[in-house]
Amino acid sequence: MTRDFLSNSSKSHHNASKRSKKEEDQVSFEVADALNQPFADGSFDLICCIECENHISDKTKFVLELSRVAAPGATIIILTWCHRDLSPLEQDLHPDEKKLLTHVLRRNPLKWISTADYINLFKSCSFQEIKYADWSPHVAPFYAEMRKITLSWKGIMSYVRHAGWRQMDIKFLMMPSMFDRFKNGLLKYCILTCQKPQ
């Protein structure tokens, strides 16, 4: 079985690299551009993307690239943050909602779309068995605890030692904003799965 795991986390890259060295005959590890992956067409029968899509502006090209490297019948799993779905009468988020997201994005330039937008992108590439679930209630305890730890004195000093004051500034200011948007339903933590046709 061949798998493609996409992540923007440097810690994930480090851990994956270490594990791949232990199992060199079974695993390879590469850092590459998600919009121009260095893999042949139909290379993978399972693709898992965890929270990297938010950092990609061109979502259409991203989904097209997933479709290209996925083998016929391949399963794609995406775990990501999305903003709320729009009603049929809405063209965009409310101005106050956009302002709230802008506040979060000021120091962490993420590119969010809605779950419905992702589903439409998958449909446009002829993916089948498209399923979606809102995992927000399941991850809420984790983010509440992470906020508490991050904003504690011990958490601040630990983060500064590992990432420096500049990164701490970003984390410190972003954390409450992210958590509040999460609680009020503007942001959701979603899982989407689909299959490429045989």
Strand order of the largest sheet: 1-2-3-5-4
- What is the CATH fold-level name? Rossmann fold
Shape, please?
A: globular
The rounded Rg comes to 18 Å
Tally of structural domains: 1
Reading the helices and strands in chain order gives EHEHEHHEHHHE
From the 3D coordinates, which CATH architecture would you assign? 3-Layer(aba) Sandwich
Secondary structure category: alpha/beta
Amount of helix? 40-55%
Number of distinct beta strands: 5
| Cα end-to-end separation | 16 Å
Spans of at least 5 consecutive residues with low confidence? none
Q: Sheet with the most strands?
A: 5 strands, mixed
Can you count the helices? 7
Average per-residue pLDDT, rounded, comes to 80
What is the CATH first-level class name?
Alpha Beta
The CATH H-level homologous superfamily: Vaccinia Virus protein VP39
The portion of residues forming beta strands comes to 15-25%
Name its key features:
S-adenosylmethionine-dependent methyltransferase activity, Methyltransferase type 11 domain-containing protein, 198 residues, Rossmann fold, SAM-dependent_MTases_sf, single chain, alpha/beta, Methyltransf_11, five-stranded mixed sheet, globular, 5 strands
